[in-house]
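[job 4471] stage=fold_predict status=RUNNING
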Amino acid sequence: MTTLKPGDKAPNFTIMNQDEKPVSLTDYAGKRVVLFFYPKASTPGCTAEACNLRDNIERFRESGTIILGASADAPKAQKKFQEKYELPYDLLADTEHELLNAYQVWGPKKFMGKEYDGIHRTTFVIDEQGTIADVITNVKTKDHAAQIL
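[job 4471] inference complete, writing structure tokens
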């Protein structure tokens, strides 16, 4: 689990998106950014979370907030996920775990008695100055927008 907390400087990054184009946190300087990490594209919980954010995109846009999703999926899988569910925001393909490690969301998990390394579903709200304003670790996938807005 991440040790990053509100008040910390958000780690900068440059990661390829679903179109294999580089996306950096500095691209959004002066804007509020919601960076949500999800375990795997097109799985039920991740789809519910991504679609809940999609369904509330106008509310985010009204406040000038940028949404970015991130997982360890390859760009091709991210593109398929984005197109299938008409997600109106970039999905970052962190296949090398650079971003996952910088935000400390990659690590040991347990599922059905088995331990493995994976992504801890976590959302960071980053303010206009690049400072972490909120860290959400208890993500409600079907109502995540309400936790952020």
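[job 4471] summary: The first strand starts at residue 14 and ends at 16.
[job 4471] exit 0
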